[in-house]
Amino acid sequence: MKILVVTNLYPPHHVGGYEIGCRDVVEKLRARGHAVMVLTSTFRRGETENLPGEADVKRALQYSTAPADPPHNKPAENRKLVRAIREFSPEVVYFWNQAGLSLWLPFTAYWHGCRMAFFLSDTNFVSWRIGAWLAGPAQKNVLVRALFGRTFLVRGWPIIQNRPCHFASDFLRQLAVKSKITFAGRASVVAHWGIDFAQFAPASRERWPVRRLLYVGQMIRQKGVHTAIAALALLAREPEFSGLVLTLAGGGMHPDYERAMRALPAELGIADRVNFLGKVSRADLPRVYAEHDALIFPSEWEEPFAITPLEAIAGGLAVVGTTTGGSGELFRNRETAMTFAAGDAADCARAIRELCANRELFQHISGNALREVREKHTLDAMVDVIEKSLLGMD
Fold first, then answer.
1. What's the mean pLDDT in 244-254?
2. Residues of 237-266 as b/e, b for ≥16 C-beta within 10 angstroms?
3. What pTM was computed for the model?
4. Rg (CA), the chain
5. What is the pLDDT of residue 87?
6. Distance between CA 22 and CA 7 in Å, rounded?
7. Exposure string (b/e) for 150-184, b if CB count within 10 Å is 16 or more?
8. pLDDT tens, 376-387?
9. Which phi and psi (to 5°) does residue 115 adopt?
10. Which of 72, 99, 178, 326 is the most buried (most CB within 10 A)?
11. What is the percent of the chain where pLDDT is above 70?
């Protein structure tokens, strides 16, 4: 099958783990014999269209997210997609994250007779609407109303409307339902994120007692990094946790928040207990997981379905985390994780305290989670769902 993947960011230039997940899926589809072309943005590349050795990746689209960024040149962006369609002749155009791209691209694919599918990995898709600019005086135009309809004019039209959608979690699927977005029924599926299990195989060393806590992710407020640090400060007052330390791996696009987090341990009197690694490459992550005992996942936003806990669990770590958004589909308290209320440092400290005090609980949680990731959340399992849906499209 010939698949044109259209996405905003693509490694090596990326912000979070979802773009890496996109690349993993693309490479797995290629390994299964499918021809895959990627059309992505010039993010961090200026106007350079591709990198050396990237014959199957075109970096050409405009990426605009900040108010100061220039508006999309919609005709020019549409022509870039049309050029890729004509050169590659895909059997399906597979849209991934569209944030920062011109939202008219899917309509361009539709107008050129392409079959389309969408992979939805975050909550932004509820705002992927076009046509709201026609509201107001345009509604009085009989011809405009006849062509587009009142709903289109007033609210804008969801670009995924009536299309096959692959949701990264059931939470996202239910969000589409609540947002009154219709999507192609049997062709739309939940395809939970999966990982290459062998890449993150558990280290052979004993992980008890729990002494080394780890956070991996972007250094942004909605990820709750401040809650993890504050929880450690509470535990530091208790003699039995004198050896407990926290490592934070990751950077971000919010330098003010990152600076505040780097200053926070000293303000709380635990500067010697917190280690900042900065941004860590994907290749180095297995080593980082192997050096730690438990992952702290303190996310405060409606996390769609995170990849980091899957990697940590595959590496043998127990997880202490929140159940916001889709995380509850993986984290079940005292069964596959220790859970706590988002933004509550005292509750986070309580969950860590209980985990550190009970070896049987640690082994029960980490063992159950490991079996679940091995059985349900491998990259092969994820691509099986995607591939079956794409091949079965009418």
1. 91
2. eeeebeebbbbbbbbbeeeebbeebbebbe
3. 0.89
4. 23
5. 96
6. 9
7. eebbeebbbbbeebbbbbbbebbbebbeeeebebb
8. 999 999 999 999
9. -75, 145
10. 326
11. 91
Instruction: Tell me: pLDDT of 200 over 50.
Output: yes
CA gap 314, 370 in Å, rounded:
6
pLDDT at residue number 128? 82
* pLDDT tens by residue, 134-180: 445 544 555 545 554 444 433 456 788 888 999 999 999 999 999 88
Find out whether 168 and 326 touch, Cβ atoms under 8 Å: yes
State the residue for tokens 């505040």. Answer: 260
- 130 pLDDT band, cuts 50/70/90, is low
In order of 10, 94, 131, 152, the CA distances from 104 in angstroms are: 20, 14, 10, 14
d(CA 57, CA 50): 7
Instruction: Give the closest residue to 355 by CA, choosing from 216, 210, 242, 239.
Output: 210
What does the block give as tokens for 377? 């959340």
Average pLDDT over residues 107-134: 84
pLDDT of 298 higher than 60: yes
> Are 156 and 179 spatial neighbours (Cβ–Cβ below 8 Å)?
no
> What's the mean pLDDT in 321-342?
98
Set out the domains of the chain in order of their start, with CATH numbers. 2-194+379-391 (3.40.50.2000), 197-376 (3.40.50.2000)
**Pairing state of beta strands 189-190 and 165-167?**
parallel
Q: What angle do CA 303, 166, 153 make, to 5 degrees?
A: 85
Selection from 176, 80, 93, 89 nearest residue 128 by Cα = 176
| 295 in Cβ contact with 253 (< 8 Å) | no
Q: Which neighbouring-strand residues pair with 165? A: 118
Amino acid at site 74 = K
- For residue 16, what are its two tokens? 């979070």
Phi, then psi, of 260 in degrees rounded to 5:
-65, -40
Of the CA atoms within 13 Å of residue 49, those in its CB half-sphere come to 7
